[in-house]
Structures are given as C-alpha cells and as structure tokens.
Amino acid sequence: MSGKKMWRRMRMSAGWMAGLMLLTHCGGAEESVKDGDTAQETAELDACEAVVQVENLRVVVTEDTYASATAPTATHGGLDRVVVDANPQSEGFLKFNVPQALLQGGVIVRAKLQLNAVDGSSDGPALYQTGTDWSEASLNWNNRPGHASGALLGDQGSIITHQLVEYDVTSVVMEPGTFGFVLVPTSGDGTDFRSSESTGTTLVPRLDLTVAKSVCTRKGTGGDVAWTRVRGGEGFQSFPTRAGGMDAAADGSFVTLAAYNEQGNFGGQTFTSANSFVIAKYAADGSHQWSRAYVPFTPSARLHANAVTLTPLGNILVVGNYNGAPDLGAGPLPPVEDEDDVGLFIAKYSPNGDFVWAHGFAPTGSAQLSQRYVNASRVTSDANGSLLVTGGFVGELNLGGETFVSGTTDSQESLFLAKFSWEGNPLWSLAVPAGTSDLYYDSVSAEDVLTDANGRVFVTGVAGTGRMGATAPSTPFIAAYSPEGALLWSRAFNGATGSLGGLALRPDGSLAFAGAFSGSFSFAGATFTSVPGNSGPSSDAIVGALSASGGDLWVRKHGTGRDESFLDLGVDTAGNITVRAMSNGLFDLGGGPLGHPAEGRHFVARFSASGAHLWSRVMDPDLSMSDMEVLPDGSTLLEGTFRNPVTLNSQEYVAPGGAAELLFLRLTP
C-alpha cells in the first residue's frame, strides 16, 4: 500500500485493543486544546463518530556509530556508515527517540528497525537492546554499553548490498521513549549500513512504527452514507481536477465527466479505445443509465473536458480546452497550432448523450507571448437552455463578437464571460482585463458562474487592481450581470487575498458563497482576519451570503492557521448550505476538530441557512474528492478517485483494477 496511512476495519488483538480503550476521547490525548482552538472544541470531542485509524510513522535515528576492538579508544560517530564485523571485531550502536507528540495518543501496534546495507554479508548481524546513556561523539570500544541483559531481537541471514534490512522491535518499542540498540556480528563476513551522516539519500537508519488510534470522523447529526458506487476498469480513471465536472437534476439523477487510459468502465460497456473524455449518466440511486466516450485521442489533437451542466430540458452542455483541431462531431474545430497554446470548446449533447453541436475558439495575439490560452472554468444554463461559460485567457480572444485583449505579459490573465443560445449562436460576450498595478501578477480570473430565474448572471473569482472594485491584486469578488451582459453590481473583499470557488442561489434569491482568504476584510459591519500559520501566512475558510442586489448579509469564518479552504458549496430548498473543504491539519467546522494534526484531508460540512453547524465529517485520506452537488432535499452527492483501499462508515472499498478508480457516494441530509 503506497503512502504512510491507512484507514481500515481490523481484527484487533487484545494486546493493543486495551490501549485503544484507554483513549478518553476521539482523536487521542494530544487533541485537547491547542493554540487558537476553543474551549467548545474540547467539550465536544466526545460527541463524535469514531473509527480506528492505522497509520505508519517513521522515526529517524537520533545517534549512530560503531566501536572497534582494534582501536578501543577511537570514535566513529561522524562517519557515513555503521560497520559490524567479527574480523576485526566491530559493533554498531543506534539510538532513537519516539516522542509522545508524534503518536498523538495512539498505540504502537508494530515497530520495525530498518537499515540500508551498503556492503552485504553471507551472515548478517544479530540485534539486541542496549542502554541509551551514550553519545556518538564519545562512544568507543572501552566505554560501549553492554547487551548481556538485553533480549535477542533478531539475527539476519544473508544480506545483499543495497538491501533494506528489517528487524522486528515491537517487543521493545511499545510506547514513547528513548531506545538503544546494538548490532553484534555473528561471522567474519561483516556488514556496513548507511548512517545518519550519509548524504544524498533518505535511507538512513529509522524506526517504522504502525500506530493505531481512535479518531473522530464526524460531528453532529446527519451526513450518513446513503449509498456508494465504485466504477472503473483495469487502467487509470479520473474526474476533472476542479469543481464543475458533475451536475445533478432536481430528481437526483446526475451526469459526470470522466476520463481513462487503456480502458474504462463506468457501469455499462467497457471502453478500450483511447478517447478524450466520457459523459456518464446515473439515476438518483447511483445506478448506471448510460455512458459514452467521445473524440478519439491523438497526439496531434488533444482535448480536455472541464465542466458540465444540465439544461431545464435535460440537455447536456460541456466546456473545456483543446489543442490541434479535434472533431467533436461537426468537423474539426478552429486549429490551435502552437503546442503550448490552448483553445476553448463548447458543446451540446442530447439527454441520451447524442452529439448536437460544438464550437471552438482559438486564442490569437502577439507572437512574443510564450503561451496564449483560454481556460474554461465553469458552465451554466438558464431557463431558455442557453450556455453561459466563464474562465480566463491570455492573448486575444473573440467569442463571436468583439475581440478582447488580455494584459501585456504572459502572466496577466483576463476574465471572460460569454452567452450562447440553445442553438449555439453567440449572444454576447465580455472581458474584464487584467489589473493595473503589476505587469506579472495582477490578473483577473473566474471561479464559478450561475443564473437565476430572471436570467441574471452571477460570477465569482479573483479580481486585479482597479477591476470589480478591487484595490489590490488577488482580491476575491462576486459580480452580477443582466441577462444581456450589463454589469449590475460587484462586491470586492478588499483587504483579503484568496478566491471564492463556490456560489449558489438561496431560496429567497440571495447568494451563498464560499472560499478561502488571507488578510482582513470588512463585511456586514464586522472585520474578519485570517489566522497566521506556524511558518507564515495561512488561509482561512469562509462561507456567507449576499442579497440579490449585492448587500452584505453574513459571513462565518473557519480556520486556525492550517490553510483551511472551502472548495465548493450547494444549497437545498430550505436554504441549508453544504460545503466541500480541505485543511492541512485539524479543522473545526463548528462542531469540534476533525482530521489529522499534520496532514491534509478532505471534509464535508452542512450548515443552517444562517451558517450554524449541523454536521461535519472528514473523508478517508486516500479518497481524493473532485466535486459535489447538493440535491433539493439536502442530500449531498460526492465524487472522487482512489487507488488505495478507502473506508466509509466502517465499509472498506478496494479499487477493482488496482489503478485509480472512481467512487460516487450520497450522504443523507
């Protein structure tokens, strides 16, 4: 299993089950109150759904050396190897420190000493426990600690050069502390191991610890797993890497974009020919309805589908990028000839996946630009079945009307927004040029787009100086346009840097938004400031609401300096809000900390219409979430990829092909 972590159901032996029973609350003893956490978190630690997490941790040697009988007063602590030999007699010494903080309240299930041999032997050394009252700077043959009272921990046979040699030291390393070991030769054919002074390698002496701990995976009531579906073939399967690759209908059925190499199976036929992308349609219970592969892949005509949406009649609109001149079904798209340039395509398919129409737009502009591109971020539709697409571009871009020009350098991206009729005809397009303060870093880009029942268009993203009301680069913003493309209002979060990646309509016509920020901004009469990280700036997650006219309603901030962010959100018919999130450490979404103290995780959380916490859960670390949709009843659809086994509600799922596979799941309200 790749990586250093596993979550799995286990048959627990009595030896360490007793240790787990001593854990007084979810998450382990080290998750009490940390800097920036609140007393409320501590009080709520017990109110959680717990699982046993098994995690592999590595502890690098603290000191290592060897002693030789032929030079009884010599020290060898600064050398790049530990020598063990019976001719001349040489013994190796290792010292490790296992801190309590590393275990985070967990129980050591297994401990292995790992050494890398740089000179093999026909008969490797024996390992004993020894004392720790020594230093590599002063240890020699005369003052070396003994091992007569230490139990034999292992005795190696033949060792080949560059072999990773392992000794089971579980009987000794059962809890935090300092541990000493001695390698004693059993033959005149000695062995040399890499020491901590070895350069250009990570193969220094180490302890590989398997640690089991009770962790909290869910807070609050709700968010149960209603169903799961695993899809995929023998090869690699994937979803688009950002939100927008899935869309759901009001009845709970949904479509998704996917890709594969070698072969793929999404619930129906197995695809074996190389194609650029797949559209798959599933019923509300996750059962397969149809899946189709599109656009044969060739090295000279590359295409990537980024985002999808459903029209009111169930037609499917797809946007993405291409290079070359691929044919989606109505002839080759306008060529994008430079291999570094990227064009935009828009396409329409019927409710059963039949091709209807497609158009391509190739960027142009100065040959001095190293790359000209059009990046399609998101797509949406309106009551008439129109296609609205937004994203960013560098160079010159014509979407059927005026030609727009981005900034003057490669890195000055400009925003575009365009509307096409249900037949694919251009209705209007606009661009927001790059900011005015910096030729290289002051860009404008879009993250999400949606429409309301009146045809108004709402866009969120990142604004540059002097654009959308922003006073500095990288300022989050939300803007509204009329059905004809006229700017109605914009709200810049001045003082903050970051992005608002999620936008949704609330039942009363107001807007819910979510994202991440660093710095400070004012909203609804209050000031919100991100918490710095341990080593510098860090982002905090925010969720909030604006009125339909752009007025401030409320904001809730979540974060304690661990780069927390909300990636996407959805709203149900009652106005409750669900977010998909990430954090590089423990994350308190309102019900108490979840996750791992030092590793990144994906999260899902549900809030009331006013932002109060309802439930939150952390996902398996080996499940990489790609997208989320919230259904009218408050259920949550999620899709992600996994390669290693993942666990949800004590059920383990294994990738059937051994490569990256797809997982769909639905959570209850």
Helix-strand layout with pairing:
Layout: E1 5-7, H1 14-21, H2 39-43, E2 48-60, E3 63-68, E4 81-86, E5 89-98, H3 100-103, E6 107-119, E7 126-130, E8 152-155, E9 164-168, E10 177-184, E11 191-194, E12 206-220, E13 225-231, E14 237-238, E15 246-248, E16 254-260, E17 264-265, E18 270-271, E19 275-282, E20 288-296, E21 302-310, E22 316-323, E23 343-349, E24 355-361, E25 373-381, E26 387-394, E27 396-398, E28 403-405, E29 414-420, E30 426-432, E31 445-451, E32 457-463, E33 475-481, E34 487-492, E35 496-505, E36 511-523, E37 526-529, E38 540-546, E39 552-558, E40 565-571, E41 577-583, E42 587-588, E43 593-594, E44 601-607, E45 613-618, E46 623-630, E47 636-642, E48 646-648, E49 651-653, E50 661-667
Antiparallel strand pairs: 1-2, 2-12, 3-5, 4-5, 4-11, 5-10, 6-9, 6-11, 6-12, 7-8, 7-10, 12-45, 13-50, 14-16, 15-16, 16-19, 17-18, 19-20, 21-22, 22-23, 23-24, 25-26, 26-29, 27-28, 29-30, 31-32, 32-33, 33-34, 35-36, 36-37, 36-38, 38-39, 40-41, 41-44, 42-43, 44-45, 46-47, 47-50, 48-49
Structure, briefly:
This protein is mainly beta. Among the domains are: 5-216, no CATH class; 221-293 and 619-669, no CATH class. Strand 42 and strand 43 (593-594) form a beta hairpin.
Describe this structure in words.
This protein has 669 residues and is mostly beta strands. Among the domains are: 212 residues, no CATH class; 124 residues, no CATH class. The chain is built from three helices and 50 strands. The protein has a 16-stranded antiparallel beta sheet that branches. Strands 14, 15, 16, 19 and 20 form a five-stranded antiparallel beta sheet that branches. Strands 35, 36, 37, 38 and 39 form a five-stranded antiparallel beta sheet that branches. Strand 19 and strand 20 form a beta hairpin. The longest helix has 8 residues. The chain starts with a strand and ends with a strand. The N terminus is likely disordered.
